[in-house]
Amino acid sequence: MMKPNIWKNPYFLTGFLYITLLILASFLYSILWGDEVRRLYFISENGLPVEAAPISPKWAFPFGTDPLGLDMLGKIVIGAKYTLITAFIIAFLRVAVSLPIGFVLGIYLGKYRKSVNGMIDSFHYLPLSILAYFLLKPVLWEPYNGFPTTLTERFIIEIVVLTILIVPVISSLLGNEIALIYKEEFIFSARVLGANRLRIIVKHILPSLKDKLVIMFGQQVMQTLIIFIHLGLLQLFVGGTDVDYSFAKDPPQSMTNEWSGLIGDSFRYLQGAPWVPLTPILFFASAMFAVALMMEGYVRVTSGHSYYYKKFKEKYEGAAKGETFDVSQSDFERVKHRDKSLSG
């Protein structure tokens, strides 16, 4: 029987190519033109200006310009690598750091797991974006005398903070899932045959978790992008917020043209020049849709069913049975809910 090839799935391939092309185009743009962006101050006809910046979308400027006359598409392309690569790194670290903790909770601390879950449950009610804002503002908001840290250092600090904030929740969910797998009959058979815990983890539990870890990674990428949007609206941008302290000061601006900064420093133009804030919002949405396509394609190849159809089906079947979970819950949260209902 031939092993299914994920690269032949149109959903996965479409999402993967879109994300890859954005990142490659961003690096290629920076190599060829640096961070220089085309500028158009006004459009004239018969020698008379008929439209000044911000200029609405035209053929030559498909997403228009910002109030300074800078091409919105150019800014989007420059910022794509900072936005997307940072989100992927944070999502990967969240899963990678939480996985060993989940093994400890699910296997080695099984009798304490309920107590630990009780303490970690409080993290579900913390407003993650607001907490991240207060933790990151001393690092990302430029002080009067300039940043005491480099751009790389600020990226690293932000990645660490946004990773650590969600690790307790993911670790708890993974611990619950691992505990369920550890009670399966094939695990019991391996233990009877003399396999130690390390071998069981490597040979049996990790392969069983592989598909769910991929889905969790995709979920974390989308959640990270949403947090970027929230922080952008609060004018706290990835890599740092450039603050003007002069008398006739300009509004806070992104230092890297990453997408959350393009939202935060232009949201006030939503009525007068809606293309300015809506362009980065559109690309945020399209990137999340691309990640969703990749998740859908991966699940279709590995399991043969539709990921999102299954989620909606579980939602409505659960509602018919009087269950309370909703479609926004992750697979692991639904497992946790199911365990509680069965134990009750």
UniProtKB/TrEMBL annotation:
The chain crosses the membrane at residues 12-32, 82-109, 116-135, 155-174, 213-238, 275-295. Keywords: Membrane, Transmembrane, Transmembrane helix, Transport. The keyword Isomerase does not apply. Its main location: membrane. It holds the Pfam family BPD_transp_1. Belongs to the binding-protein-dependent transport system permease family. This is ABC transporter permease subunit. It comes from Rossellomorea oryzaecorticis.
